[in-house]
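sry for the spam today, last one i promise. struct tokens for design, 240 residues
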């Protein structure tokens, strides 16, 4: 997973308002300083938080994504530690103030409670776990069985989705065509799956592993998510 996408990820995510998203995270983190960005991808959140003074490391299960993240940090002159580690394997040598997992990390987990348990164990008593998911509405009503395509500069992608209802899973096939110098196109294909998790199931799992308070919010909002919210934030407090 991400073998092909890593090279193009930032290009096709260029319309995301990362500044607003990062400010949103910082507002919630408050005085919590030491943390981990799980599923850090190309390192956009990790690098920005490090620049803002947070003692944060990034981890991901994709060597390709981590390679891009390390190069992004090098270009910005920001010293960041990146670790090859899946969400389910999360561990740290000292307790953390926060764990974040942005941009659908939890949707890629069939059993997110494994990650929640690891995060809970890694946090200080005052620590928080913060993540987002693509909502059940988005995956089943918008992405489900649809095809999307986009061209950015010399790269075109075709994104095909199939909703497997019984498994509550969306299987994704991404095909990239990149124009070469000789005007020929190189083709690469990648498959991924995202799991549909209801908000209620997520909240229950967080309480089950020991979190004392769990809050849900709409995307970059301080209010609860709407019925047709496409992205939902979760903030789980170990103690409050």
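last one done:
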């Amino acid at each position: 997973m991400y073998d092909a996408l890593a090279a193009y990820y930032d290009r096709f995510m260029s319309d995301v308002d990362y500044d607003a998203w990062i400010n949103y995270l910082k507002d919630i983190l408050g005085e919590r300083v030491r943390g981990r960005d799980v599923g850090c991808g190309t390192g956009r959140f990790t690098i920005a938080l490090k620049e803002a003074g947070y003692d944060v490391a990034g981890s991901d299960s994709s060597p390709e994504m981590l390679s891009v993240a390390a190069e992004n940090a090098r270009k910005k002159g920001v010293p960041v530690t990146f670790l090859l580690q899946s969400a389910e394997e999360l561990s740290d040598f000292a307790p953390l103030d926060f764990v974040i997992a942005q941009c659908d990390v939890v949707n890629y987990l069939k059993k997110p409670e494994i990650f929640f348990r690891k995060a809970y164990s890694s946090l200080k008593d005052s620590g928080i776990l913060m993540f987002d998911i693509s909502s059940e509405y988005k995956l089943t009503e918008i992405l489900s069985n649809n095809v999307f395509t986009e061209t950015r500069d010399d790269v075109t992608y075709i994104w095909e989705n199939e909703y497997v209802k019984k498994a509550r899973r969306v299987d994704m096939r991404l095909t990239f065509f990149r124009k070469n110098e000789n005007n020929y196109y190189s083709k690469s294909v990648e498959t991924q799956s995202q799991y549909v998790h209801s908000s209620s199931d997520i909240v229950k799992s967080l309480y089950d592993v020991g979190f004392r308070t769990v809050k849900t919010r709409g995307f970059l909002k301080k209010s609860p998510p709407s019925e047709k919210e496409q992205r939902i934030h979760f903030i789980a407090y170990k103690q409050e």
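The chain has a mean pLDDT of 93. ok im logging off now
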